[in-house]
Amino acid sequence: MRARMEDVARLAGVSTATVSRVVNKPECVSHETRQRVMDAIGQLEYKINLAARSLRTNQTRTIAILIPTIAEPVINQLVEAVEDVAVTENYSLLMCSTRGDSAREQAYIQQISQQTMVDGVLYVSPRSAPEQVLELANSDVPLVLCNYHVEGTGTPCILADHVSSIYQTTSHLLAFGHRRIALLNLAALHYYPARMRREGFENAFAAAGLSPDPDLVVELREPTYDANDWRGVINELLDHAHPPTAIVAFNDKVALEVYAVCRARGLCIPHDLSVTGCDDILSARYLDPPLTTVRIPAYELGQLAMQTLLMRINQTDPTIHKTTLLDVELVVRESCAPPEQAL
Amino acid sequence: MRARMEDVARLAGVSTATVSRVVNKPECVSHETRQRVMDAIGQLEYKINLAARSLRTNQTRTIAILIPTIAEPVINQLVEAVEDVAVTENYSLLMCSTRGDSAREQAYIQQISQQTMVDGVLYVSPRSAPEQVLELANSDVPLVLCNYHVEGTGTPCILADHVSSIYQTTSHLLAFGHRRIALLNLAALHYYPARMRREGFENAFAAAGLSPDPDLVVELREPTYDANDWRGVINELLDHAHPPTAIVAFNDKVALEVYAVCRARGLCIPHDLSVTGCDDILSARYLDPPLTTVRIPAYELGQLAMQTLLMRINQTDPTIHKTTLLDVELVVRESCAPPEQAL
DNA sequence: CTGTTAGCGCCTTCAG
DNA sequence: CTGAAGGCGCTAACAG
Questions:
Q1: Which nucleotide is nearest to B53 (CA to C1')?
Q2: What is the pLDDT of residues B35-73, one digit of tens each?
């Protein structure tokens, strides 16, 4: 629209200050004047110019959410939660998804830290080198990390308990009597949760007074989101002279691949092989048999992360506890059974 | 950062205009001067203020994408495509997802049309009343519609061919010899593609010189994304005195529910019942049996929509063809077979 | 190739 | 409760 506040002011016979008040603090303007101004606004189809406002107020009312992809169920629930909070708090959400492209991740970080464009950043599952994450953490843009952990800086970190998730699925299988349990993990460079999952796996064995067979721990370093590479790995595992009786997949998508391989080999889950996943994606319950997995509180994660970021921005509570670990819940379905003694 | 262009200019011993040029048209500045300015920028940790730039240039370099939810595979692929184009063209993406809440959809539309905040809007799968969509179309914000169609206004519409998708799955079943085919459709208020799907269903029958049994056409008016309501409907259909031998689901999620119901009833797909879906979500191929469905060119849709929007914004080509229909592809897997003659 | 100058549209003290 | 006035930081003519 062409009309500016000045035009509205003239038409309503008031000053621009009053128009501004009508827009921002209507309660501070007399009912009568307000009405006149509102009419003028409608008549001129006046549109408020956010750039001018931002320039003046020094805040953009926009936050950026930096994520690896939007196509992961856990992440898109998290994003939805963030947006829900943003909407109630009158913030807009800038989507920055990197699609596993580290150059793009870098570019986004540059953009955010070298331009005044957002009031804060939510950085989910960083894949960048720790130094780069630190660089952002040490810049003057308020930051909250999700699914990542840094120490030293005052950056709040909100995490699901990745140790616990794999600990729980592994323990579940151990309780069934499995001993030869394989772990399918993603250990891409700078991918933080991988270590925690590995730890959960080992802790579960340790708690049972056992230790895992290193041969059965597979850590793919492929940073992409392409699931194809898993098939080869799974087949290798099953071709092993002394194959596993159970597989702990680090997420449900990989568990899906285990299902596919079993189907191709004529193996019956859970009779011939027990399988667990993680994330509880939609299709987990529709598989045959339904998949035993772990529910990640993705929505709560996003909510908490956004609330924390808002507190940082408003400096409401500078003593926000630095890192929060959210509990995770085992969802037992039908993909696990005692191992075949015959094997 | 505190530093403004003026500070940089002073430190580098040049004018602000030169600093601006270094930032925006580096090729128009001598190598030497540029270097000096860049050093100053680094030294002062100068951050460019986008609000000031926008105020001056009268463009935000931001576009809004208005979507019903982010958690649908087709939509999130589309969004990814949009973002990919945005990144290459130096635009930012504002996420506006309504989560099936029409009040929120309205609020977003208000915000977009009554504030200068974005250079354009991509409106995907509107659920609002047609008048409201038209209101946005007639505002001065460049708009492109996805998965929707309006006539009269010059608004470009980019659509997947919803008629064809259901036409193809229905024909596939007819070719197997099915005659009692049920349609599970979503006909939420103002949900545009529902009509097209219904049309595809009926056209397929007509092309075979047949007509569908109206008893077997179910159109749920539930506007939510909750899939639970479908179970009851599916059970009713199968309890019918003369039940269908095949079910055409309007999308894969609903087909998933058909699988679940069949599993619960001890029915074997495709032996006892043939099923088709639409969208080709990830899990479609992991089901047992793998689901016959339709691939929607979601990425291409998003790409084309964004490119079209950019042309509108830049007025590169005011003669953009108004509406584009993208082809859709049947993916035959194993969820369909000839009907049991015994039934 | 570089500098001068004049706003972009709004908010926000400060008076009245 | 309302008005006057200044400036947020940047870009884009226009000169030189």
A1: D10
A2: 889 999 999 999 999 999 999 999 999 999 999 999 999
Per residue in A186-245, pLDDT (tens digit) is: 887 788 888 999 999 999 999 999 999 999 999 988 655 566 678 889 999 999 999 999
Q: Which residues is B159 bridged to in the sheet?
A: B325
Please indicate if any CB of chain A lies within 8 Å of the CB of B110: no
Task: Say which residues have a Cβ less than 8 Å from residue B169's Cβ, sequence separation at least 6.
Answer: B248, B276, B277, B278, B292, B293, B294, B330
End-to-end Cα distance, chain B: 75
- The answer for B 136-195 residues in CB contact with A (under 8 A) is 140
Q: What is the CATH number of domain B61-160+298-326?
A: 3.40.50.2300
**Nearest residue to A132 (alpha-carbon basis) of A105, A165, A164:** A105
Give SS3 for B253.
helix
Q: Please give the class, per CATH, of domain A162-296+330-342.
A: alpha beta
Least confident of A66-80, B178-192, B314-328: B314-328
Query: Distance between CA B105 and CA B25 in Å, rounded?
Result: 39
How far, rounded to the nearest angstrom, does the alpha carbon of residue B324 sit from its chain's CA centroid? Answer: 14
A222 CB burial (10 A radius; 0-12, 13-18, 19+):
middle
- Which residue in chain B has the smallest CA separation from A226? B282
